[in-house]
Amino acid sequence: MSTSIVIEKTKRNPDNISLKGTLLVASTLTVMAGATISPALPSLSVAFADVPNIDFLVRLILTVPALFIALGAPLAGYIVDRFGRKPLLIASAILYGFAGASGYLVDNIWLLLAGRALLGLAVAGIMTTITTLIADYYQGTERSSFLGVQAAFSGMGGVVFLSLGGILADIGWRIPFLIYLFSFLILPFIVTQLYEPIITKAKNQTANVTPPKLPLGLFAFCYITMTVSQIIFYSVPVQLPFYLERLLGATAFQSGLAIALLSLNFSIASALFGWFYKRLGNHPAMLLGLTITGTGFILITLANEWLLLGLGLAMGGFGLGLVVPNIITWVASGVPEALRGRAMGGVTTSLFLGQFISPFVVTPITTLVGDGFIYATLGIFLLIVVAIEFVLRRQIIKLTTLSEE
């Protein structure tokens, strides 16, 4: 006989405001992991100017959490499937506060990077458990709508914390690291408001029942798309502060506001994702998002003043706001419940792997085409991808659908 895992309903109501609010506010911690200190990068370069290759190392300060999120997410997915969701979420929130704020205290660039690595492991636990709990608590269109709202809150967290990070970075490069202590304010609500789904192992009645299959085609398509989208998304916090400083003489606060505009429109699109999903479906909504993003990035290159730049960033953020919740919903709907934690861990890995490798991909391209044309290059690339996927749309739908059977 084989066994299957069943997620049972409990007497707890997942529709109460305090539970939903806790899930949404906790989701803001994930976007804070890297981009919060983005406005402080030029100041960090000055503070550690005597360190060899400091321009590259300060970019790693921004992106090294993403590497350890990508490495830690598969383990986090295994833990939530094997031992439960809530214990890992609590432990991760505690580690998040200590590791994130450690940057305020250290004077060594390598210790700073070590703290960022621990922060990445904490985010891996937080994001994997939050998305898994949402998939556990809600079903169907309610799930897709809430995942869109979750992505919107993550983007709004980017708006708030990036803006605050820019203000604090003008005071001193260390101050933005204190923002990570916000996790300790959320922790009591995680403990009291969220509940662990009841998971039981039920024996099947026949010995010939095959175990659930992994939808490998769906995973490959969604994970690759997520990684590429995040390489492009993170080109903004990685490159834009330096670009704006040279182009417009922007301060850290102004750079923070510019990047926050991307996050704001990411949030708006994510909040509307349920509307687009109902009318278009997964793949058409994804192609629309990639088209808007590619067009927006081309406008960033054409900009020589703030208005056109803002329009390009707004479009870039809006388009990506349709892509990310789309991928999460697609995977959550296509995976067996018994493997949901590991599937969400894969989503987390692909998302933050893209963020980590972004400077390794974008910096050489920037050297080749110049910082004035990097965003046009990325935008044109996205539009080419959209054209190819449109031509191959039937094959893509067949691949992802057959893999779910």
Largest sheet, order of strands side by side? 1-2
Distance between the termini: 22 Å
Q: Quickly give the structural class.
A: mainly alpha
**Gyration radius over CA:** 21 Å
Share of helical residues: over 70%
Flag low-confidence runs.
Answer: 1-9, 202-208
Largest sheet: 2 strands, antiparallel
Strand content: under 5%
Quick one: how many beta strands?
A: 2
Q: Please state the overall shape, judged from the principal axes of the Cα atoms.
A: globular
Helix segment count? 16
Average per-residue pLDDT, rounded, comes to: 81
Order of H and E elements: EHHHHHHHEHHHHHHHHH
Structure write-up:
This protein has 405 residues and is mainly alpha-helical. It is built from 16 helices and two strands. It has helices spanning 17-35, 41-47, 54-83, 86-101, 109-137, 140-171, 182-193, 216-233, 235-248, 252-271, 273-280, 282-302, 306-334, 340-369, 374-391, 393-402, and strands at residues 3-8, 198-203. It has a two-stranded antiparallel sheet with strand order 1-2. Helix 1 runs antiparallel to helix 5 (109-137) and helix 9 packs across helix 10 (252-271). The longest helix is centred in the middle third of the chain and has 32 residues, at 140-171. The radius of gyration is 21 Å and the shape is globular. The model is unreliable at 1-9 and 202-208 (pLDDT under 50).
